[in-house]
Specification:
The complex is a heterodimer of chains A (710) and B (214). Chain A is built from 15 helices and 26 strands. Chain A is of the alpha+beta class and 710 residues long. Chain A has 3 domains: 196 residues, Aldehyde Oxidoreductase, domain 3, CATH 3.90.1170.50; 297 residues, Aldehyde Oxidoreductase, domain 4 (2-Layer Sandwich); 119 residues, Aldehyde Oxidoreductase, domain 4 (2-Layer Sandwich). In chain A, the strands form 6 sheets. Chain A has a 7-stranded mixed sheet with strand order 3-5-1-12-9-10-11. A 5-stranded mixed sheet of chain A has the order 7-15-14-13-8. Chain A has a 5-stranded mixed sheet with strand order 16-17-22-23-26, sandwiched between helices. In chain A, β19, α11 and β20 form a beta-alpha-beta unit. Chain A starts with 18 loop residues before the first helix and ends in a 15-residue tail after the last helix. Chain B is elongated, with a radius of gyration of 22 Å. Chain B has a 5-stranded mixed sheet with strand order 2-1-5-3-4. The chains are: A alpha+beta (710), B alpha+beta (214). The interface between A and B is large, with 99 and 83 residues. Bound molecules: FE2/S2 (inorganic) cluster (FES) (2 copies). The site of one FE2/S2 (inorganic) cluster has 12 residues of chain B, from loops. The site of one FE2/S2 (inorganic) cluster (FES) has 12 residues of chain B, from loops.
Chain lengths: 710, 214
């Protein structure tokens, strides 16, 4: 039944430059630095869902062995950045600020002790009584309270609700539950004050510079007095895009106890402290002519946010951008609930929107009796439907072909529920994804030493995609030197500024700066060499001849205004073959294949892994992930890995990733486009579509668990 | 709910047993048995002498071998092997992903068998041999499984990786690596959120088929 691949040839491309550190356990993540005199913080959370704190009794906790301090809103020193003259109506959670409780699990105390065990025990001794008030945690029953997050009108192109008058139409509602990033590394920070106005943190973050700014702002310090170090990040997927209250709390606690404080969130904390993909309701209307030309798309979405802070994402954008359709209207609403604030999770918004749009496109293909790929080709956008601009590059049509051939799409039976393999129902599904290709600004310093080695630094992070490996590849290609002569360093705020790792933009942004810096170095070498091109082997020689210990350039690179002429996107298509057990409803992925148009692939080995990993995250979204709240108490019921299921080995077959690998001529010197998001965007729909093809059952509320199929 | 031991809530009314024992120790050891004058007793309390005495009663000596090195420690009975490795021995290659035996990030070998070190109390490894990821390579020469993970890119962020590798080695030793399906089944206790699963299977198969000694 399973395809056994005996060829275990390694995927092509440079192996991870930090791989040896990772396989030997020498790579140090934020909680793992040895800091003299370190103390341990453990948070205690609210057990009510809305209201206020009546009393906090910390005496027992304070008297417990090894406890140095118990911080609550009653005794916490004022955080300067929290004190605003005109308090905003909504905003980030201010930890230990006042007695208000907005959600279940909101931190109410932080216990600091000399060992982790003692802090953990003492945290259980903090006694809190509350004035509980009524609360709302149920999205579905609060949909009518949704408000528009912006003041402008809803999006309209052509005429609204045009689908209603189309000869063939689909109108359906789709629901995704709350999905939690759950990187394997728990969020962790070690904070130490080096002086009254100077603090150092080892911190799990996707943004070195943004964390430096946030901490500086909170404690009103000069930015350079905050030293942020994050050389290894154990996954994040968006959960470390911003500075969270627990990070501020750790910095505060270190000030209180006058010792370094290590604060590692528990897995349960990870569900309530660092965001999630929000529970979202959607409705799609698609109208088409009998030959499959879209005449109208309507997309409405309502996503949950917290009562204290708005979180918005581009759920409906994909319907404005994906297909050439004259009439499109979208509407996006936020529903405030007594939950913690969501945050972007891999393919933010688009992954949610693509589940609805690409499921609906599949439904339309059956209604029209047109092959799903053919239907997409009949509505293929040759220019950006929103602005009319030309694309900087778009090879999605190639991706469809490559994927269809590789998965054996022709074997798909268009009549659902008809194919059986060894007693299991078999079906194929596909769906497409897209995400903006961005290029921001980054600065790198590149230093060529007289021994011929090249050292490059910038304050970016690598949460897993292999940034260091990609940058090393770029530098070695531009300079024409072997990759083992390149040493790329990241993860420290004393390095030149780089953007936050997120939104699939690091390779394009930082890669451009690396490329530009290497080009400048080559120019300088050429000048030194009497304006004649030197072979890379001669770099060291040139430096030695001129008695130079090193040659250094600092380069800031960003896209020029010409980029505004183009619509810039990465594209993906995901194919899935599933088997569904007719009696138990168990869904097994038998084959998975993703094809990306992500421009030139800079680092093929790590890029392939990133695409596969994104597909697996999409499989989790489609088939199992769901954070469940007991609405009677407003409390999460499955805030652990036993009850919140993520994909494990047994769930995942040999998923493959392929690339169109054609350079984008405009975005950056490498011709690369981003890939982190499109790896996940569309996957959930591909699986739902495959399940429909296998069973004839259309599941519109994720996850597709067996109970929905029997 | 925030970090806390399972089943206990901050407003829980139950007197923690350890606390009562501690109070007893304080009273008997310091006030009653030693019969200090009030002034001295206050001073002793200030200096947390009671704590120190209580601590001595509450810690247990253990001896075990980690990566070939003999370790003698005094540990609290509630301290897990995982926390002892990471916080006391600075062996941070072993990772904490959940602390509840649900993710496999903390996998180490105890007397050659894979265990979740977060579910293993330090006192349980008294007299045993523990191998962590730091002890797998022979100096600079990597273990074949480490090489295979590098070759097949069996990781991204690297956080689950030490646990995956320790599990993978055990998976072959146990004779549970005879097919892709079997590997997937017996590697399902190790979560990889980055989704390196197919590459991990390829790495394990290569080591198994290469007939390397693991
Ligand atoms: S930390 Fe031990 S299994 Fe997760
Ligand atoms: S490599 Fe990141 S969790 Fe496995």
């Amino acid at each position: 039944m399973e395809k056994i691949t005996l060829d275990k040839g390694a995927p092509e491309g440079l192996s991870r430059v930090d791989g040896r550190m990772k396989v030997t356990g020498r790579a140090k993540y934020s909680a793992e630095y040895k800091v003299a005199g370190v103390t341990y913080g453990v948070l205690a959370g609210s057990t009510i869902t809305s209201g206020s704190i009546k009393t906090i009794d910390t005496k027992k906790a304070e008297n417990a062995p090894g406890v140095l301090a118990v911080i609550t809103y009653l005794n916490a020193p004022k955080i300067p950045g929290y004190q605003t003259e005109t308090p905003a109506a909504k905003g980030a959670l201010k930890i230990f600020y006042d007695d208000k409780i907005f959600f279940n699990g909101q931190p109410v105390a932080l216990v600091i002790a000399d060992t982790f065990e003692r802090a953990l025990f003492a945290a259980s001794l903090v006694k809190v009584t509350y004035n509980a008030t009524t609360f709302q945690t149920n999205l579905k029953s609060n949909l009518s309270t949704g408000v528009s997050p912006h003041n402008g009108p809803d999006y309209l192109r052509g005429s609204g609700d045009a689908y209603k008058n189309a000869p063939v139409k689909v109108e359906q509602e789709y629901l995704i539950p709350t999905e939690v990033h759950n990187p394997m590394e728990l969020h962790a920070i070690i904070a130490s004050w080096d002086a009254d106005d100077k603090v150092s943190v080892y911190d799990k973050t996707q943004g070195i510079k943004s964390t430096q700014r946030s901490i500086a702002q909170a404690f009103k310090l000069p930015q350079e007095n905050v030293h942020v170090m994050s050389p290894f990040v154990g996954g994040a997927f968006g959960a470390a895009l911003r500075t969270w209250p627990h990070e501020i709390a750790a910095v505060l606690a270190a000030k209180v106890v006058k010792k370094p404080v290590k604060l590692v969130l528990s897995r349960a904390d990870m569900f309530t402290s660092v965001g999630y993909r929000p529970h979202t309701w959607q409705k799609i209307g698609l109208g088409a002519t009998a030959d499959g030309k879209l005449t109208g798309i309507t997309h409405e979405a309502s996503g949950q946010t917290s009562v204290y802070e708005d979180f918005t994402e581009g759920v409906v954008n994909i319907s404005q951008l994906m297909y050439a359709c004259p009439n499109v209207n979208t509407k996006y609403r936020l529903v405030s609930l007594n939950v913690n604030t969501p945050t972007p999770m891999r393919g933010p918004g688009e992954a949610t929107g693509a589940f609805a749009l690409e499921s609906a496109m599949d439904e339309l293909s059956y209604a029209l009796n047109i092959d799903p790929i053919e239907l997409r080709m009949r509505n293929y956008a040759e220019t950006d439907p929103q602005t009319g601009k030309p694309y900087s590059s778009k090879f999605l049509n190639d991706a469809y072909k490559i994927g269809a051939d590789a998965i054996g799409w022709s074997k798909r039976n268009a009549k659902p529920g008809t194919v059986k393999e060894n007693g299991w129902l078999a079906g194929y599904g596909m769906a497409a994804g897209m995400f903006g290709a961005y290029r921001g600004s980054a600065t790198v310093v590149a230093r060529l030493l007289a021994d011929g080695t090249l050292h490059i630094e910038t304050a970016v992070t690598d949460i897993g995609p292999g940034t260091g490996t990609a940058m090393t590849t770029i530098a070695s290609e531009v300079m024409g030197i072997s990759s083992d002569k390149v040493n790329f360093k990241l993860g420290d705020s004393t390095m030149p500024p780089s953007p936050t790792q997120g939104g699939s933009s690091v390779t394009a942004t930082v890669g451009s700066a690396v490329s530009d810096a290497c080009t400048q170095l080559k120019e300088k070498l050429k000048e030194l060499n009497g304006n004649s091109e030197s072979a890379s082997a001669g770099y060291a020689q040139i430096l030695q001849q001129h008695n130079l210990p090193q040659l250094e350039v600092t380069v800031t690179s960003k896209g020029g205004p010409e980029l505004g002429k183009y619509a810039m996107y990465s594209w993906s298509v995901h194919f899935m073959k599933v088997l569904v057990h007719p009696v138990t409803g168990v869904v097994k992925i038998q084959q998975g294949l993703s094809v990306a148009d992500a421009g030139h692939i800079v680092s093929p080995k790590t890029a392939r892994s990133q695409m596969i990993g994104g597909s697996i995250m999409g499989a989790g979204m489609a088939l199992m992930e769901e954070a469940v709240i007991d609405h009677r108490y407003g409390r999460l019921m499955n805030n652990n890995f036993a009850d919140y299921h993520v994909p494990v080995q047994a769930d995942i077959p040999q998923i493959e990733a392929l690339f169109v690998n054609k350079p984008d001529p405009y975005l950056n010197p490498m011709g690369a486009k981003g890939m982190g998001e499109i790896a996940t965007i569309g996957v959930a729909a591909a699986l739902a579509n495959a399940v429909y093809n296998a069973t004839g059952k259309r599941v519109r509320d994720l996850p597709i668990t067996p109970d929905k199929l029997v | 709910m925030k970090s806390k031991m399972p089943g206990t809530l901050p407003e829980c009314e139950m007197e923690a047993p350890e606390n009562s024992r501690r109070n007893f120790l304080k009273q008997s050891a310091l006030i009653t048995a030693v019969a200090l004058t009030p002034a001295v007793a206050t001073k002793a309390a200030d200096m947390h002498v009671d704590e120190k005495i209580a601590e001595a009663f509450e810690k247990l000596p253990i001896k075990f071998e980690v990566n070939g090195v003999q370790q003698s420690l005094s540990v609290e009975p509630r301290a897990t092997l995982l926390d002892i490795l990471r916080e006391q021995l600075d062996l941070t290659g072993t990772k904490k992903g959940c602390d509840y035996g649900q993710c496999g990030a903390c996998t180490v070998h105890v007397d050659g068998h894979r265990v979740n070190s977060c579910l293993t109390l330090g006192v349980m490894v008294n007299g045993k041999k523990v191998t962590t990821i730091e002890g797998l390579a022979k100096g600079e020469e990597l273990h074949p499984m480490q090489e295979a993970f590098l070759k097949h890119d069996g990781f991204q962020c690297g956080y689950c990786t030490p646990g995956q590798i320790m599990s993978a080695v055990a998976c072959i030793r146990e004779g549970h690596a005879n097919s892709e399906t079997e590997i997937r089944e017996f590697m399902s206790g190790n979560i990889c959120r980055c989704g390196a699963y197919p590459n991990i299977v390829n790495a394990i198969q290569e080591v198994k088929e290469g007939g390397h000694a693991v």
